[in-house]
Design goal:
The protein is about 35% helix and about 25% strand. It is an alpha/beta fold. The longest helix has 13 residues. This is Ribose 1,5-bisphosphate phosphokinase PhnN.
Length: about 170
């Protein structure tokens, strides 16, 4: 099974997934996928497998990715060799959810927060102007219909959000 983690910018996906990874480290049925991204490793963000665009394209052509997509000028990929019988967890783009569901059992874990909380978190990053933040939050695409979705509200302390994510993951049969 694949758990595709999605949510708007500022929802705290990376923070909550890092906490869930630590909390579930002793439970072998949970596998947190390292994505391949055409972004240098030193650029920060999630721990990813950094590839050049040419290397990514070569691996894609060789069938190394179960899913791949382009966003924000970068290519992202999920490896084709996911552990069988595991709960495989990865941040995904909404644009590949339907393709993922067509290829394998998929549960969407949508991490979200109220608009005011999202706006405050994005403003605290200091990377965008207020108008850009408002535009970013307004363009959130809906989830494709017919998918199994579990929503986790991340509107409080990090520990509370991590507990909610871990509970959602442990509830998977």
């Amino acid at each position: 099974m694949l758990v595709g983690v999605v949510g708007p910018s500022g929802a705290g996906k990376d923070t909550l997934m890092a906490g869930a990874r630590a909390a579930l480290a002793g439970e072998p049925r949970f596998h947190f996928i390292q994505r391949s991204i055409t972004r240098p490793a030193e650029a920060g963000g999630e721990d990813h497998r950094a590839l050049s665009r040419a290397a990514f394209e070569a691996e894609r052509a060789a069938g190394c990715f179960a899913l791949w997509w382009e966003a924000h000028g970068l290519l992202y990929g999920i490896p084709a060799d996911l552990p069988s019988g595991a709960v495989n967890i990865a941040n995904l783009s909404r644009t590949v959810l339907a393709a993922a569901a067509a290829r394998m059992p998929l549960l969407v874990l949508e991490i979200t927060a109220p608009p005011a909380v999202l706006a405050a978190r994005l403003a605290a990053r200091g990377r965008e102007r207020e108008a850009d933040i408002a535009a970013r939050l307004a363009r959130q695409a809906p989830l494709p219909e017919g998918l199994a979705v579990v929503r986790v509200l991340n509107d409080g302390p990090v520990e509370q959000g991590v507990e909610r994510v871990v509970a959602a993951l442990r509830a998977i049969p």
